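=== Structure Prediction Worksheet ===
Name of assembly: unnamed complex
Input type: mixed (protein and possibly other molecules)
Chain count: two
Listed entries:
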Amino acid sequence: MGVYIALSPLLILVLGGCGLMLAEAFGRFSEDGGDEGPSSELSLGSAVCLLAAALMAMGLWIKGPETIEGFQKVAPYLILDRFTLFFTMVTCLGGALASLLAGGYLPEHKLDRGEFYSLLMFSTIGCVVLAASGDLLSLFLGLETMSLGVYALTGFRRGSTRSTEAALKYFLLGSFAAALLLYGGALLYGATGHTDLVGIGKALAADQGLPWPMVIFGFAMILVGLAFKVSAVPFHMWAPDAYEGAPTPAMTFMAVAVKSAAFAMMLRLLVHSFSSPGFTSWGSGWPPVLAFLAVLSMTVANLVAGRQESVKRMLAYSSVAHAGYVLVGVVSMTRLGDEAQASVLLYLLAYTVSTAGALGSLILIGSRGAEAVSYEDLAGIGRRHPAAALAMSFFLLSLAGVPPSAGFFAKMYVFRGAIGAGYYWLAIIGLLNSVLGAYYYLRVMVYMYMREPAPGAPVAVPMRSGLVTAALVLSALFVIVLGVLPGSGLSMALQAVARG
Amino acid sequence: MVATYAPIVLLFLLASVVTMVMFAAGHFLGPKNPTAEKMMPFECGADSAGAKHTKLSVKFYLTAILFVVFDIEAIFVYPWAVTFREQGWVGFVTMLSFLAVLVVGLIYCWKKGALEWER
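=== Predicted Assembly ===
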């Protein structure tokens, strides 16, 4: 029985997702997505389910997952530890924010079909499974559950060629990455005879007559697959197009929950399977590869983001840049261990709430037929709609890392970890990039407060939606709490990564 | 390892050689008498009309996908049925919950009208 309690966040999501699907099929919602659309009820329903799962994870956290009888029954397929619970909370929070945003966005832009919410919930199940899995088989199942839902969400605006193009691109490159991961996993299994991550790690550490070319080829495949999934440069090409073409709530989910789950998968693989000294040394292991990816991601994404004309595309590149900052933390992990890993977890949480907030503000500023996309659309919003502009500025400052916001402390801990690990040059490049990043975040504010729309240009009118406002308030709360009490967030992350 | 897979490699080689020989024999030995009539494209005896890439109704894909879903279900049920007695109640309830999820999917398809051909 105990194992069902330990699995309850997942079970809540499964039952909730199926329930929403049936509610949407049986409900009397108009087919063409008029004003009687299903969104407000279903959005609230899915947000409640996702937050309930997050709260259940919180409850398990407080009780301590290791005290629950039978929690190891499903190991190693699902490892129900604090690490899993942390990512359950992060991804469920991201999913809940995305579904609240969708509740405002979809009816406003005549996309009001109820499938969005059940797809989103099923995707979140995939995210949670991905973070929990300690075996290559369940890892791949989680990855596909997560991705399939998101492919459909990306192409949700069926009539638009942009959206379809984005979905197709995302689908092809996503499946390509999944195939690479699968191939790498197959080679590792062939070399070591294990599919569970800890078993692979032990076999690699023992090194009794392993076919090393096979191991290294498999490992390289896995690294490339992971880099695709977290959209690190130079494997980021799909990200801006997929993000820009997707409806903004779907982009929120992709940038937030999917990316966090991909990093959870990366941490599990690196910590459980590839943590033997041969793999973590600078000379022969993965640290230089990931450090290279981190430097490229930060620099290229920040430089390109500054040149974008569309705020949505700028935020897509900013999400690539943030993957670079997170990778700095992952690299420091080899020398600093838990402390650096905890900074990665905290960064993902801070990034989740800040990005969801920024995209939510962008949704709030647009209205039917006039989605706010470009910098010009935002001109003069500060004078006409001070509340929306304030929300946007608040979350952008957190993304830029201005104290005392969640983003500042997240960045600080990651860079402190890099310095503590002796990677001074990584910390310096990261700091320089944060300055570079501040340019395009501040540029949005310059447009909002200091420019007026060109005469004759369409003027953006913010929409009104209680659901969007609720999502913004929720994420603002997290940004403020993490900004005021960063220590408690960090100690929670430290608990999450401690090997129990 | 080589000895284990040698028969398979031999089979591949044999299969490709036989196929190539057959095609080559047909190409070189067969009598050829091309007339204008013979060179015309044909579809089951009727004159072909329209573009090569016609749009297929999405219904075909829908049916194919539904087929795959329930086909996979059968794949999972078979091994379960073979070891039914050994698995006891735990196995029974597990399979029941798996089928329940699929039934939810079926009900969803039904209500959404995916099972109706004429719409």
